[in-house]
Amino acid sequence: MEHLPPAGDAALVVAGALVAGFLNGLSGTGYALASLGFWLHAMPPATAAPLVALCSVIGHIQSLPRIWHGVVWSRLWPFLVAGLLGVPVGTLLLDQVRVQPLKVGVGLLLIFYSAWMGLVRRPPVIYRGGRLADAAVGFLGGLMGGMASLSGPAPVIWSQMRGWNMHEQRGVNQPFNMSVLTLAVVTAAIAGFLDTRFFIFVVLAVPTTLIGARLGLSLYGKVDDRQFRIIVLSLLGVSGITLIASSL
């Protein structure tokens, strides 16, 4: 009984998993951004990061058959290879992370980006850089994934700026996040961050994540590219505000 979390912490874990699972099922991203706003009030970053990674991967597996037609390996592999290289670097930094400045910095970036992309009539499209630029973004996503399970923002922003449609975006973002976060869980286990309390939170979070992801996925087929873009930008903006508010 001494390992059981307080009822308030358990409620935060369940609420965060439901909201994050829904957003992840609908947009293919945002699990960490949504869940950390709840979970960092209930657990330290070293526990929250692998929990986010595990639950996000499970949610991705559930929805993968629906988005598989958008996966193009020639587009995906630079993100994937570089991202997997970045994960162990981020994990090494996990115990050194000061969560408050990290959350504020990521939150400000998300608010600025979503506001800017929402206001411009014709969002800029980046054609240059090729696979090297894609790999750099993948490495950044892997680094943030290993450090705080925040692998999503970098490839999400970049895939939008590449001008890809919603199926192409999910065809990169979802397999990337699933692979990077799987490795993040493994490296966290090797580093000794998975204690008894972590597994208690897993029992609470995983079923709720699956319920939320199923609800979100049921809405995914009912939106077009414009609506998908609005959903993703709104998600990024609200997530940025939540990250900053929860750090103050």
Main attributes?
248 residues; single chain; globular; 10 helices; mainly alpha
Low-confidence stretches: none
| Helix percentage | over 70%
N-to-C CA distance: 32 Å
Mean pLDDT: 84
The H/E string reads HHHHHHHHHH
Structural shape: globular
| SS field, number of helical segments | 10
> What is the total tally of β strands?
0
Classify the secondary structure makeup into a structural class: mainly alpha
**Radius of gyration, Cα only, in angstroms?**
17 Å
Structure description:
The protein has 248 residues and is mainly α. Helices cover 79% and strands 0% of the residues. It has ten helices and no strands. The protein has helices at residues 7-27, 31-39, 45-67, 73-93, 99-119, 130-148, 153-161, 166-190, 196-220, 225-247. Helix 7 (153-161) runs antiparallel to helix 8 (166-190). The radius of gyration is 17 Å and the shape is globular. The model has no long low-confidence stretch (mean pLDDT 84).
Give a nutshell description of this structure:
By secondary structure, the protein is mostly helical.
Outline the fold blueprint:
Elements: H1 7-27, H2 31-39, H3 45-67, H4 73-93, H5 99-119, H6 130-148, H7 153-161, H8 166-190, H9 196-220, H10 225-247
Helix pairs in contact: 1-2, 1-3, 1-9, 2-3, 2-10, 3-6, 3-8, 3-9, 4-6, 4-8, 5-10, 6-7, 6-8, 7-8
